[in-house]
């Protein structure tokens, strides 16, 4: 990659996504230059590692061995903790949410919802719960923090602090995913 390219990370990320496309979200996650290879058991993991390392070699991409970690049972990755049970919210991030005081301005609402929103996939109906708070962030709306906003704020905090574990689906059969836009 040429020196001084202003969008180098985006270009590199695009390259990694194109190279790893057949395996993305099957057993590998790529974020810029970080690879996370996950598997259900050691035998499967060995094959997944072999596949990705062969792919990198074929594409003439290299990993610095001293920066690699192999066969680790638990990893912190992009604000999540991932282990054999599934994906968890990072407890260190949740600590700051536990102690968060009620917002006093639209900016403080944005700050809270920015952090909480990162974990919204752990909370069913996140947007519906947050709606009373987001209404106060609109322009030309007077900021009046009331009972509805406080209730929504406390409910989001409580749900984030007791977030479920997200796990990979079991079995090899096709499955359907139903989504709602809330």
Automatic annotation (TrEMBL):
A Gene Ontology molecular function term of the record: RNA-directed DNA polymerase activity
Keywords: Nucleotidyltransferase, RNA-directed DNA polymerase, Transferase
Every Reverse transcriptase domain range: 1-82
Superkingdom, natural source: Eukaryota
Protein's recorded name: Putative reverse transcriptase domain-containing protein
Organism: Tanacetum cinerariifolium
Lineage of producing organism: Eukaryota, Viridiplantae, Streptophyta, Embryophyta, Tracheophyta
């Amino acid at each position: 990659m040429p020196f001084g390219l202003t969008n180098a990370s985006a270009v590199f990320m695009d390259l990694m996504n194109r190279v790893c496309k057949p395996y993305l979200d099957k057993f590998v996650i790529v974020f810029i230059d970080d690879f996370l290879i996950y598997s259900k058991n050691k035998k499967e993991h060995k094959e997944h590692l072999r596949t990705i390392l062969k792919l990198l070699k074929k594409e003439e991409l290299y990993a610095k061995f001293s920066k690699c970690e192999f066969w680790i049972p638990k990893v912190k990755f992009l604000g999540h903790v991932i282990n054999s049970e599934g994906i968890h919210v990072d407890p260190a991030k949740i600590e700051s949410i536990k102690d968060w005081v009620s917002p006093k301005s639209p900016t403080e609402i944005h700050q809270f919802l920015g952090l909480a929103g990162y974990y919204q996939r752990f909370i069913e109906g996140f947007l519906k719960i947050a709606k009373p708070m987001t209404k106060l962030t609109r322009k030309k709306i007077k900021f009046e923090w009331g009972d509805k906003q406080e209730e929504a704020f406390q409910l989001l905090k409580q749900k984030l602090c007791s977030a479920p574990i997200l796990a990979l689906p079991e079995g090899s059969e096709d499955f359907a995913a139903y989504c709602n836009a809330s």
